[in-house]
Description:
- By secondary structure, the chain is mainly α.
- The chain has helices at residues 3-13, 17-30, 35-54, 57-71, 80-93, 106-115, 128-146, 151-172, 176-200, 213-228.
- Helix 4 (57-71) packs antiparallel against helix 5, helix 7 runs antiparallel to helix 10 (213-228) and helix 9 runs antiparallel to helix 10 (213-228).
- The protein is globular and about 55 Å long.
Amino acid sequence: MCAEAKNMKSLLDRADSRAATNALLAEVRGGTFRPAAVGRFLGLAVRRSLHQAVRRPRALAELTVLHGALYTPASGRRPGRRWVAVSWALAVLHLGLLEHRTRLTLPDALTLVRANLPALPVGDHRACGVVAIGLDVADGRLARHQGTETPFGAYADTFADAAFWMWLTLRHEPDRAVRAAAVAVWALPVVAVTGLALCRGAVPERPRPVLLRPAAALQIVVALRRLTRR
């Protein structure tokens, strides 16, 4: 087996998702972000993601059953079933973040349900923000109590927050200042971290909890404004 084939197999099989991502990022950075380098990066990333998903058939099945259960009540709604389908696809592509685990945990399931609240009937209820906060608190405490924290849960939590709270604010919040704050708290950090990873050629460390407090405070504000608005 040639060196390039061995390196490819090592990349596909590597359990340490952070190290694998850094290897991919280093390659695209080494190519000075030329279209060919970016295309190779995306192709390798998708290939590794699918390879890792196939290696975890139980987690893949659990993920599919969960989203199948969410797909039915999302019928006839906006964003509805398309939102659930995108959630399933993104989750499948990130199953490698489970690393040495081969199945989802209850905290993972709660996080994914929270991410899909906009597609469900509860998304129209005034208490949907409160429900999201409750699910967020529950999945975090359960993961810490059970010792089941994984990069998959951490990143799913981040994107669930960004997706749900941006949707809720842009859909139901009339105040422009609150909308601007939502973009600053949830959308810009995701863009900034992605840009930093590409520039450095490595995944940056997650922000310390103290930096997440403004986002938590804004969640409470948006949830209460939605709950009390007639």
